[in-house]
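Here is a protein:
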Amino acid sequence: MHCKTFHRKKILIVFGACILMMSVLVGRLVYLMIFESEYYQELAQDLHERERSIKAARGRIIDRNGTVLADNRTVCTISVIHSQIKDPEAVIQMLVKELGMSEDTVRKRVEKVSSIERIKSNVDKEVGDAIRAYEYPGVKVDEDFKRYYPFDELASKVLGFTGSDNQGIIGLEVKYDEYLEGIQGTILTLTDARGVEIENAKEERVESVPGNDLVVSLDYNIQFYAQQEALKVCEAKQADYVSILIMNPQNGEIYACVNVPEFNLNDPFTLNTGADTSDMTEQEKQDALNQMWRNQCVNDTYEPGSTFKIFTSSAGLMSGTTKITDQFSCPGFKIVEDRRIRCHKAGGHGGQDFTHALMNSCNPALMTIGQKMGIETFYQYFEKYGLLTKTGIDIPGEAGTIMHSLENIGEVELATMTFGQSFQITPVQLATMASSVVNGGRRVTPHFGMAIQDRDGSILRKFDYEIQEGIVTEEVSAQMREVLEKVVSEGGGNKAYIEGYRIGGKTATSQTLPRSAHKYISSFLGFAPADDPQVLAVCIVHDPQGIYYGGTVCAPVVKNIFENILPYLGIEKEELAVEKIETE
C-alpha cells in the first residue's frame, strides 16, 4: 500500500512538472505571438530583405545672377551579390573590360562571400548602361549622383568639394551641408533563406529627397575676371600666390574671392603643383593637399603693412588726439626708445599735414598719431573696430588676429603697429575693418550665403548677418574717404586712378618673417565711388620677384578690375573737377 502511494506521488509530481512546463511554454508562445509579434516580424523581414542605398541629388550652388557653380551628374554604382552569380568568370572578365580595373581587384570582390559587395562607384552612366545590358544575374547597377563643378577651378577654395559619400569636405559645401545634402533613398529586394532574390518579387523603393539650392553672393563674371587678373600678376611677378577679395562694403556681400593657384574641383585630390607624389608618405600627401585647399583670404594671417594706416589715422581722429588740420614733421626716421625706425623715404617728407602724411604713407607721421593716442587708447580702438574677434565669415577655418596682449605692448610695439607691423590679421579682416571706416561706421559681416531655395526657385530661407553700428562717426568716415581718394588721385596709389571715377585706396609693402629672408608682400586696398563706396577690393601678392612695391604691383591690378566691373555694376563715370597729378 505504501509503495502504491509513493508511485502515485511520483506520477503526480512529474505530471505537475509537465503541466507547469507546458504552461510556461504556452505563455511564452502567446507573449511572443501577441506582444512581440512586430519585433520578430521585422527581424524576419530584415532576414529576407536586401537594402541598397539611393544617393540624394545634392542641392546646387548658384551665384547671385543664377549661374550654377556646383551641380550634379548622374553616375552609377556597380555591385555584385555573390549568392546570385551563376558564371563568376564571365562576370569578372566583363567588369574588368568595362570598368578598366585590374583583374585581381575585381576577382577578390566578386569571389568574396557577402550579401552585397560594391565593385566601383561614380561610374559614368554610359558605362553603367553597358554593364546593365549584359543582364548577368547578381550584377547590380544603381544610379546615383556625383558632384560636378562646371567651371573646374573657379572659386575652388570658396565652394569646396564633396567626398565619395557626397558629404561636404571644405568651403561652402561643408558650411551649408545640412541644406545641400538631401535625404538618401533605398531599394529593398526580397530573398530566400539562401540569400537569392525571389523571382517576380517586386522591388520596394523609397525615393531619395533632393537637397535644396544655396544662392551665394559670388558673381561669376566678377570672380572670373578677378581670377584672370590674379593669374596674370602671379605669372608676371613669379609670386608664391595672389589673393583678391572683392566685396560690397555696405552689406558685406562678397562678389569675388580669388586665391591663385586654385585647384580643380572635379579632381581635388591631385596636387595643382604638378609635384610627384610617388615618393611622399601618406601624411606628406595629406599635408600638401591641405595646403592646396587653404583659402588664404580667410585661413591665413599676414602683416598688413601700410594698408593698416587706414585704421591708425581714423582711430586718431575718433579719439580726438589728432585732427585733420594737424601738421607733422618727417626727417626720414623717428627715434622710439632705443630704436631708430625709418620712413620708406630716406630723406624724409619734411613738413606735411594729415592728408599728405597719408598720401605719402609716412611712417613717422603715423607713429606720431599712435604716440598721441597712447598704448591703452590704441588698443581700445583695436578692440572697438572688431580686430580682436573673427569677422564671422561663413567659411570654415577662419583664422583669428595674432596680436600682443595689452600688458606686452611697449612704445616700440605701438610704433610698429601704427603702420601695420608686429601683428597679423587676415585679408578678410582688413577688408571688413576698411569697410567700417568708409561706409559711415558700420561693421558688416562678410559673407557668401544669401538664401536657400527649392528647385523651383522658391525662397525657403534668407540669411541675415550682424551689423555693428558706431565704429566711426559719419564725420570721420567722410574725412577718411576724402583723404583716401587723394591717395589715389595725387599720392602713392595713383596707379589705381581711373579718369571719370572717384576711387579711394591705400598701398602697402610689408616684409615677411624672418626679415633676413628679404621676402615681401605687396598689397593695395581700393574702393569706389569714393563718396559713396559700393565696391571694395583688396589685392595681395606674396613674394613678388623684382619690383615689389604695392603701388606698382597691386594698384594696377585693382585698376584693371575696377575698369571692368564698375560699369558692369552700373556705376557710371562722372565729370570730375579734380585733375590727376602724376607722382611716384
In short: Residues 2-35 form the longest helix (34 residues). The first strand starts at residue 49 and ends at 54. The chain is about 35% helix and 20% strand. Residues 578-584 have pLDDT under 50 and may be disordered.
